């Protein structure tokens, strides 16, 4: 049996938010359908217990609109797999723009880019407090360093848990981690590691090489897609944290890290007609028995945003357990399981076991 509602707020009502809400409502309507979930009930909480109470964006097609309307508004282009969303009593509020939008977006047609609303930002802390939000999910675009820190600061002031699903190093930054610990506010981060995405596949294959005694000499991971995230990342100046996050996640599976010239991981290009479909190519070159070379090439095609929803739903429920237990600071186990750049890297097998132990009542480190 479920315990209570989990009140969440979302910043960035984009494809990931759309997929997450579609999934919540689909599983709520059909609890017998557990495809895509590790557990329907996690620590007594089901997806149906997740309740959105506030949302923030900066696009004129979303700000001031109902949440139900905003999640299907342009430039969102993720697959609509469940369209029977309720009339949420939530209006999308105007957040601060700061560095949330890259200048090059203005050079692209509006269906794929952001269009800033001509409104003053709301008082984010006030909205969080008045809405009763317990958790804020940060879905801001890659490169939004200042904006991500603004929302982290707002969570500290509003006493709200923070799930940092994008690659700005907050949970893995000692200063930020200490501040959340001092206020006993839980934080999960950084940079969501999708359910079965490029990073988890690359990590698993890399570990397989090592477990079978094959030396990894070189590897790359190239990704391209047609959503706003890939358009945003055409500005290579916004990619420093993203590339670091994805690279260190794969390096963590190696006993000996590869020289930087022998590992290349990062977004490659924007192909508009792919929409939210992400194509990934992974290549691993190594040497096995007798020092004989071998090469592995893999192609992965996946709908990007539902892929992230498959783990964020677990992050939300684990954070709620932490709130129930009055646990603050970094949630190491679920961060390692759901994020590319957690404060401490564990293998995915270790992280899953740690999450199971945390759910069962084991204290975080």
Question: How does this model look, in words?
Answer:
By secondary structure, the protein is an alpha/beta fold. The chain has 2 domains: 6-193 and 306-360, Rossmann fold (3-Layer(aba) Sandwich); 198-303, Dihydrodipicolinate Reductase, domain 2 (2-Layer Sandwich). Helix content is 33%, strand content 19%. The chain has 11 helices and 11 strands. It has helices at 15-29, 67-70, 124-131, 145-158, 174-182, 198-211, 228-232, 240-251, 304-324, 332-338, 348-360, and strands at residues 6-11, 50-57, 92-94, 135-138, 161-164, 186-188, 215-225, 263-270, 277-287, 293-303, 329-330. Strands 3-2-1-4-5-6-11 form a 7-stranded parallel sheet, sandwiched between helices. A 4-stranded mixed sheet has the order 8-7-9-10. A hairpin with a 5-residue loop joins strand 9 (277-287) and strand 10 (293-303). Helix 1 (15-29) crosses helix 9 (304-324), helix 6 runs parallel beside helix 8 (240-251) and helix 9 runs antiparallel to helix 10. The two termini are 28 Å apart.
């Amino acid at each position: 049996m479920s315990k209570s509602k989990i009140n969440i707020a979302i910043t960035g009502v984009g494809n990931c938010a759309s997929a997450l809400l579609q999934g919540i409502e689909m599983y709520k309507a059909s609890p017998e359908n557990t495809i895509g979930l590790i557990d329907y009930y996690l620590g007594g909480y089901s997806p149906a217990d997740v309740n959105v109470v506030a949302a923030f964006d900066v696009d004129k097609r979303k700000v001031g609109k109902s949440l139900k309307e905003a999640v299907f508004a342009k430039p969102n282009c993720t697959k609509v797999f469940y369209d029977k969303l309720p009339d949420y009593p939530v209006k999308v509020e105007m957040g601060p723009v700061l560095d949330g939008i890259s200048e090059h977006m203005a050079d692209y047609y509006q269906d794929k880019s952001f269009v800033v609303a001509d409104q003053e930002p709301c008082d984010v802390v006030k909205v969080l407090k008045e809405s009763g939000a317990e958790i804020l999910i940060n879905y801001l675009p890659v490169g939004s360093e200042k904006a991500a820190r603004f929302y982290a600061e707002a969570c500290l002031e509003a006493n709200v848990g923070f799930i940092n699903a994008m690659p700005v190093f907050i949970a893995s930054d000692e200063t930020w981690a200490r501040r959340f610990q001092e206020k006993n506010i839980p934080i999960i981060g950084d940079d969501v590691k999708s359910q079965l995405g490029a990073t988890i596949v690359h990590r698993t294959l890399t570990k397989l090489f090592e477990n079978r005694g094959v030396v990894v000499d070189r590897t790359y991971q190239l990704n391209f897609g047609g959503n706003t995230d890939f358009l945003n990342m055409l500005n290579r100046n916004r990619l420093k944290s993203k590339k670091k996050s994805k690279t260190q996640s794969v390096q963590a599976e190696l006993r000996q890290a590869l020289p930087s010239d022998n590992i290349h991981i990062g977004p490659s290009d924007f192909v508009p007609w792919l929409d939210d479909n992400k194509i990934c190519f992974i290549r691993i070159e190594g040497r096995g028995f007798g020092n004989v070379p071998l090469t592995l090439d893999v192609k992965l095609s996946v709908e990007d945003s539902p892929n992230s929803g498959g783990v964020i739903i677990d992050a939300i429920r684990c954070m709620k357990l932490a709130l129930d237990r009055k646990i603050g600071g970094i949630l190491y186990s679920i961060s390692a399981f759901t994020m590319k750049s957690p404060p401490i890297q564990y293998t995915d097998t270790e992280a899953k076991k740690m999450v199971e132990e945390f759910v069962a009542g084991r204290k975080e480190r």
